[in-house]
Amino acid sequence: MIGFIGGTGPEGRGLALRFALAGEDVLIGSRDAERARDAAESVREIAPSISIGGGVNADVAEQSNTVVIAVPYSAQRPTLEGLMDELRGKLVVNVVAPLVFSNGVASAIRVEAGSAALEAREIVPDAIHIAAFHNVSAQELLVPDRALDTDIVVFGDDADAKQKVMGLAEAIKGARGVDGGGLENARYCEDLTALLLNINRIYRAHSMIRIVGI
Ligand SMILES: NC(=O)c1ccc[n+]([C@@H]2O[C@H](COP(=O)([O-])OP(=O)(O)OC[C@H]3O[C@@H](n4cnc5c(N)ncnc54)[C@H](OP(=O)(O)O)[C@@H]3O)[C@@H](O)[C@H]2O)c1
User: Fold this and answer.
1) Which residues pair with 179 in a beta bridge?
2) Which domains does the chain have, with CATH numbers?
3) Ligand 1 center to residue 116 CA distance, Å?
4) What are the backbone angles phi and psi of residue 91, rounded to the nearest 5°?
5) Contact, 176 vs 153, CB < 8 A?
6) Reported pTM
7) Is the distance from the beta carbon of residue 73 to the nearest atom of ligand 1 less than 6 Å?
8) How many angstroms does the Cα of residue 173 sit away from the middle of ligand 1?
9) How far out from the chain centre does Cα 17 lie?
């Protein structure tokens, strides 16, 4: 079971849709059970055959063996601190990009731990942490038949967990998983999200990335 904390947002719903289309059982989490059920229903309307449910974040984390953290950076610390028991021993997949917006322009912000992913590991040390999907457009994910012309760079220090998440990345139509090395390297794709958002504004597009030469 793959659960999404903050799964009512576009990134959580988009990844939930794609993982469910790949045959995974998914759960959308929220601070509010009704919002979670509504979000799950909205994803089921896009793809009626998928297996998707919804519930409050703590129940979703408890019932899932893979837990995707899809809240805004400002909410990461309190959210994870509230889920320490439920996340113990789980595979935690962090998609968080630490950003602020000023007059519509996105900027990456400095995180004392080095990155959102490293901070998450500091907060919940007894989970297995992988970071990925930072540069994937939620709007593109939410169009179920759309092949995403993108690479998804996956970071982490547990080889088996990283392979599993690279498999999830490759289950997204058109996407390729790329091994980005250890969790320490996640900062580079977290920050790149700010650049992509600013490019999107200039080109009115949903930009993503390809790594060439490998
Ligand atoms: N959008 C993209 O294209 C994209 C792409 C790559 C990475 N990301 C990253 O993915 C994460 C999610 O992105 P998003 O655009 O889906 O975010 P979002 O819509 O701003 O937030 C996602 C969900 O987080 C929950 N949330 C918001 N504030 C919270 C708080 N103070 N405490 C606890 N929960 C809170 C909300 O769920 P409830 O109110 O239902 O609890 C909300 O629906 C972000 O960290 C973002 O940087 C986004």
Assistant:
1) 154
2) 2-203 (3.40.50.720)
3) 13
4) -85, 115
5) no
6) 0.98
7) yes
8) 23
9) 12
83: which 2 tokens?
Answer: 């889920």
Indicate whether residue 34 lines ligand 1 (CB < 6 A). Answer: no
CB distance 94 to ligand 1 below 6 Å: no
Ligand 1 atom 6, closest CA:
134
Q: pLDDT at position 37, please? A: 98
Atom of ligand 1 nearest to the CA of 72: 45
- Exposed/middle/buried for residue 19 (C-beta within 10 Å: 0-12, 13-18, 19+): buried
Residue with tokens 């929220």: 30
Give the list of residues 6+ apart from residue 145 with CB closer than 8 angstroms, or none: 173
Residue located nearest, by CA, to atom 33 of ligand 1: 75
Atom of ligand 1 nearest to the CA of 141: 3
Instruction: Compute the mean pLDDT over every residue in the chain, rounded to the nearest whole number.
Output: 98
Q: Indicate if ligand 1 lies below 6 Å from the C-beta of 138.
A: yes
The pLDDT tens digits for 84-105 are 999 999 999 999 999 999 999 9
pLDDT of 7-16, one tens digit each?
Answer: 999 999 999 9
Q: 26 C-alpha to center of ligand 1: Å? A: 17
Integer angstrom CA distances of residue 65 from 43, 76, 127 = 21, 19, 11
Would the CB of 6 count as within 6 Å of ligand 1?
Answer: yes
> At 206, is the secondary structure helix, strand, or coil?
coil
Q: Look at strands 99-102 and 105-108 and give their pairing.
A: antiparallel
Q: 184-194: per-residue pLDDT in tens?
A: 999 999 999 99
Contact 5, 60 (CB under 8 A): yes
